[in-house]
Amino acid sequence: MMKNTALAAALALAVAGTLAGCAAMGGRPAAIAARADVPAALRPTGQEPFLQVHATGVQIYECAARPDAPDVYGWQFRGPEATLADASGRTVGRHFGGPSWASNDGATIVGQASATAASPDAGSIPWLLLAVKSRTGEGLLAPTTSVQRIDTQGGVAPAAACAAANAKQVARVPYTATYVFWRAR
Questions:
Q1: pTM, rounded to two decimals
Q2: Cβ atoms 25, 106 nearer than 8 A
């Protein structure tokens, strides 16, 4: 009897989660709670978070001369490549150079960094707040006005030497992050 009760409870939670996920994909996704551990500078005003995804991918760097000092080489950031997954692990989109985010249902947004904070995880790329500067298509990401990048792990430029001898070498550094999408209230 106890086994059946536990099974029924697990099934009820699974169905509720599926229904919530379906509701979020159709129409206006339900708002989620803003996190108190995010620095104030990274919290947009007059907006509410409506979608949170986990990104798994790489930050891409190239060994190149600095534009302002052609004899000085360093790892230059070229862009991200990541898959975006919802809480159930289902792929809902991708993140790529721009910086851009595209949902599987046809919406694409392009952001511009407006604030940054050091990651609490030493050796990880910073947390960011990005304002949406352009959008195309309809879909899950269409109402986005700001994007937070938090919970970063990895992704920093390589510690390996960068000089004329290895110019144009590309490094794909693994990273994970949480992206929170915000919309106007």
A1: 0.82
A2: no
